[in-house]
Amino acid sequence: MGNGQMNDIGRLAALVVLTDEETARGIAPHLSEYEVVTGRVGSMELKKVIASVETAAKRGSLIDGDVYRETHALYHAIIEAAEGVTRGKLSVGEIMRTVGLSFSVVRGRPYEDEREGEWLAVCFYGTIGAPIKGKEHETLGLGINHI
Amino acid sequence: MGNGQMNDIGRLAALVVLTDEETARGIAPHLSEYEVVTGRVGSMELKKVIASVETAAKRGSLIDGDVYRETHALYHAIIEAAEGVTRGKLSVGEIMRTVGLSFSVVRGRPYEDEREGEWLAVCFYGTIGAPIKGKEHETLGLGINHI
Amino acid sequence: MGNGQMNDIGRLAALVVLTDEETARGIAPHLSEYEVVTGRVGSMELKKVIASVETAAKRGSLIDGDVYRETHALYHAIIEAAEGVTRGKLSVGEIMRTVGLSFSVVRGRPYEDEREGEWLAVCFYGTIGAPIKGKEHETLGLGINHI
Amino acid sequence: MGNGQMNDIGRLAALVVLTDEETARGIAPHLSEYEVVTGRVGSMELKKVIASVETAAKRGSLIDGDVYRETHALYHAIIEAAEGVTRGKLSVGEIMRTVGLSFSVVRGRPYEDEREGEWLAVCFYGTIGAPIKGKEHETLGLGINHI
Amino acid sequence: MGNGQMNDIGRLAALVVLTDEETARGIAPHLSEYEVVTGRVGSMELKKVIASVETAAKRGSLIDGDVYRETHALYHAIIEAAEGVTRGKLSVGEIMRTVGLSFSVVRGRPYEDEREGEWLAVCFYGTIGAPIKGKEHETLGLGINHI
Amino acid sequence: MGNGQMNDIGRLAALVVLTDEETARGIAPHLSEYEVVTGRVGSMELKKVIASVETAAKRGSLIDGDVYRETHALYHAIIEAAEGVTRGKLSVGEIMRTVGLSFSVVRGRPYEDEREGEWLAVCFYGTIGAPIKGKEHETLGLGINHI
User: Fold this and answer.
1) Chain B positions touching chain E (beta carbons under 8 Å)
2) Which class is domain B9-26+35-146?
3) ipTM of the complex
4) A97 phi and psi, to 5 degrees?
């Protein structure tokens, strides 16, 4: 993996938020079958960040909002990506921080074996810091789950 | 930030591990003044992962190993990146997981204001999973600190 | 322990929330000397869950609310049970989850040795999930403390 | 839920470890279609606990060990159950504790809607404490995941 | 260190909150070159605690509020001290607790080697407990960072 | 509290490790009825730190090692103090750190009301850092529990 040709659903999710979908697909043309949804959210409340990703994924038909199984898979992928963003303390405003994030959600079949089925990748990239412009630095997080 | 021209020391660190240094510098030519060190490590022990990054950064003269201040700044950036990799439980082998990671360390001045001085970014990308080939998925983590 | 005849104050607490007090006492007739208080609470705020258990325990005279020692013992038993419910992130609404829980508090002497004195068990059982009916799964948590 | 007739895959998993499979199925006869695997493990190493559950689930054909998707689902359910056992610190021997646990793994379809598919519940019940007989108290943990 | 003559910026920070600045400087006269700012804060919200320390440090000219580097160094020192205060769960009101704290911030050069530059120590001492007078016990936390 | 005359069992525990027992008792003469045990431990393994405090407390007859209730109360006070030392990640060697610590354990009746009974305070003070002399900074932690 890493630079390999397979299984890099997470790499595509990360490249999309670090550059843009066109550049990302140019770097990784073999990933053309993955579906991608993107969005942006800024907040001091983690629940708003979570809700933004869930809403984007449902509106973009990336997950079926009627099926709890899909919501459950996405929720845990979002939380795992948020752990990377918050680095050890799953809190934002409660500890006087704010985030401004781009996000991507990617759905597809990263494994050759058919039985592995579909997986989701969620990636955040943006800033975290004091609630004052410029008093912030970059942050990144990736979550992966089977669906 | 995000896709901005400034302050994206973390973006360079991430692009380096997700593609390679040449591709990363091609996407972000304005970042040519940043110094970059890269490496790879696979282990069930987090301390070996930490030690590999520290050794690479010292050998590559990215930090001055004689000054605790620089070691301290790098250590906390590594730990923050490792939080993204391990997503909420800063453990690998203790909970029956193994990691195979590429890493980058980037040093430079991401802020226009001279007083902000130098900062470090550490990024990991690779796989985490059961200690069996193929029973794994991707993982990513970024840490940023002032030096 | 486990299926033993002694020291299973936690087992009684769990059986009470998983079935009901009568069934639980039928399964474990040797535990008849333990005092039991039960209740229900649904919330997106962990502090309301904590307060519900504290209020029920005081109203049911299971603990003496005037003595900090007893409040302190109960508080830590509740928090430990809540760790099981929230599994690694002691948050509910902040990360866009809601809980609907039955709880029990049991007080008694689980050890043969008189010097071991009284202990408390707190158990929660119910659902955790998205704040939408049906988008949830079961959750369980047990906390034990000396009083 | 709670005492409801549906969706109580976790309740069955808990009743099995708190009593035994026969008693548990007697309390919850409507759950007869769920598959159940049980076992016991005592250790100061969490990885041995995880490995014991994985081995029992594979040997009992509860999951297909060749498919990473199933291993991944089980792994996260085990970790969530272990969070309940360790209550806030996912460590055993590292912080001078030992565990003696019975466990159950249950697989089935807890939702009426066919699209929700199969889910897993993992439950631990036993003791945690100092590595000296009798210097311990009860502990319980439940994890649930879609498969 | 420990009782040594050097590097005890944290010891001074702790003695100031446990006694008062005059007593602390009497115990540690060799630390006369360190700058000290003190304050008090009581709250159920951690963000108010963080903001109080930041405001006191800026008003007392201990850090330069215009430079993010200094804000970033102070923020992480505060968070580390708050980990000691909250002991494993970086939350106060969310889990039904309140704090009443004295704090100190100390800035100086704790290492002989000039290259080590300036460091910060933040110390909290006071009470944590139920939001009822007397239903509380002491708490203490120290954070250290390079600036 | 804070600088008050009562309830400062934790303050005494902290002053003992930050200065020495004689100095501490001189600052707080009203605390003469508390029993104090002290010791030192250096390790990369948290379990050795825990064991050192437990052994010192038993040898010094501060707790009765035959009674689990007392071991349980001390264990949780040690873990809470260790949370302050490790600040958010209850690990030492696993994340490439080492500690060199002085510790104190204090037992007594910090509340006027007789019913509050006896409490324990555990305090650590020393260094944490890379396993290289001088590449370290100070650390402090306090835990309090009823016994």
Assistant:
1) 64, 66-69, 72-73, 76, 111, 113, 115-117, 146
2) alpha beta
3) 0.94
4) -125, 160
